[in-house]
Amino acid sequence: MERRKRIIGVDWRGLLVAAVFIALMYTDFFFCRGWLSGVVVGGVFAVLGVTLGLQNMWMIRVGQLVPATVVDHKEEHNDDEVHYIPIVEFSDRSGRKLRKQTDAGLGVKRPAVGTRVLVRYDPSGRLECQIMSAVRWIIPIGLLAAGVIVLGLTATKYMK
What pTM does this model have? Predict the structure, then answer.
């Protein structure tokens, strides 16, 4: 089974790609004197932000909000850091008990076993179970803002 490294539910490889694009932008790797790299980087950030935001909104639309109890933690190791992924247990609308791993990761405090939390889960199983938190919106909003800023700076610098 493949080990996925996550940062608040985001696969770390997406963030690595964004970092490479930033490096390309600052070194003017492209032959277009930097404007193309600015558009690519800004566009990638904006698209990632919109995609994560739409995923959050989709979960709000189709997900079921239920009270759950933290019953365990799964440890994921990333270099010299340990991330604790909460595993929760809850009853769905039909009364069936479910045990699911949440998609929380870095930046999420390790709730103690027995802690009651609110979760949203997708009854179809396409999206992972999510502990409800305002932190879910920080990364999409931050990526979208970074994309808009990079696109704006690129436009003001090269569209004179």
Answer: 0.64
